[in-house]
Design brief:
By secondary structure, the protein is an alpha/beta fold. It has a single domain, classed as Rossmann fold (3-Layer(aba) Sandwich). It is 38% helix and 17% strand. The protein contains ten helices and eight strands. It has an eight-stranded mixed sheet with strand order 1-2-4-3-5-6-7-8, sandwiched between helices. Strand 1 and strand 2 form a beta hairpin. The chain is globular, with a radius of gyration of 17 Å. InterPro entries: AB_hydrolase_1, AB_hydrolase_fold, AB_hydrolase_sf. One of its GO terms (molecular function) is hydrolase activity. Pfam families: Abhydrolase_1. Keywords: Hydrolase. This is Alpha/beta fold hydrolase.
């Protein structure tokens, strides 16, 4: 169901597309890439799982693409129909080349409205990682009746800010991205913890060569809005994350959200999730979503 005439893969560099396709081919379940036209551009959504199963939307971190879920989809697709888009305008196959520009978080909320409606989804479970967690949280605040249960994996800028030291270290990659800088940055953040080599190349080549729009930077949600969010929420934190102080993130989530469960994933850095210690990540996600079935 990929429309080649409008597919971003026709414009993405061959080296990136090959790396992306290699990781997607390693997904342990059959996957159907679907391109969805929106006012903001064409979005690639990788779909898997039984067609009649409850829907689950997976939103990846910035620059990670939907392929990042390769270690999680087998368990998640056993119980859900999984919809994993590449984030609009970010690395991947979802160019922000439509008539409406993507300028603010509200535009991403409209984009998600369109995706869910395209697939006939009234309400779905939702899981976001890193930057994708910020988008997922924003969507739960935007359309509470469309999010049944919400999982946030090492969420950026949701309940606490990012560490200045991390932002300083990321600055060269942000200002002049190269594949070598991308590899070095995530290796530094991982601190010696393992990173999947094939997926690392998707991240590195995407950072260096894939056209992308200006990233929508979203502020932390106001405390009063978070206190009103009754959607059951799971927050999974990377024990060795250098992106933020995980205890501050946990404290903020537990203070502000009425219905939240927080857990720390051992043996994981921020950039190592959600594949590092995938067995524990999948166990916790599975139990959380099953509780709402």
């Amino acid at each position: 169901m990929v429309d080649d005439a409008h597919s971003f893969s026709t414009r993405a560099p061959a080296s990136f597309s090959a790396a992306y396709d290699a990781v997607l081919a390693a997904w342990p379940v059959p996957v159907e890439p679907v391109d969805v036209r929106t006012d903001f551009g064409t979005t690639r959504v990788n779909v898997c799982g039984p067609a009649d199963a409850p829907p689950l939307v997976l939103l990846p971190g910035g620059g990670t693409t939907s392929t990042v879920w390769y270690a999680n989809v087998a368990e998640l697709a056993a119980t859900h129909r999984v919809y994993a888009p590449d984030i609009l305008g970010d690395v991947g196959h979802s160019p922000a080349d439509g008539p409406r520009p993507v300028k603010k978080l509200a535009d991403l909320m409209d984009w998600l409205d369109t995706l869910l409606s395209h697939f006939g989804i009234g309400a779905a479970d939702m899981c976001g990682y890193s930057y994708g967690a910020r988008i997922a949280l924003g969507y739960a605040l935007h359309a509470r009746d469309r999010v049944r249960r919400l999982a946030l994996i090492d969420p950026n800028n949701c309940f606490a800010g990012m560490k200045p030291g991390y932002l300083l270290h990321a600055l060269p990659l942000l200002t002049r991205p190269t594949a070598a800088r991308a590899r070095a940055h995530i290796a530094w953040e991982a601190g010696g913890l393992p990173l999947d080599a094939a997926w690392r190349e998707v991240y590195a080549l995407g950072a260096a060569r894939t056209p992308r729009a200006k990233v929508v930077m979203a502020r932390r949600p106001p405390a009063d809005r978070l206190r009103e969010l009754t959607v059951p929420t799971l927050v999974l934190l990377a024990r060795h994350s250098k992106v933020h102080d995980i205890e501050r993130v946990r404290a903020g989530a537990e203070e502000l959200l009425p219905d939240v469960e927080c857990a720390v994933i051992d043996g994981a850095s921020h950039h190592g999730l959600p594949m590092a210690n995938a067995k524990e990540v999948n166990r916790r996600l599975g139990a959380f979503f099953a509780a709402g079935a």
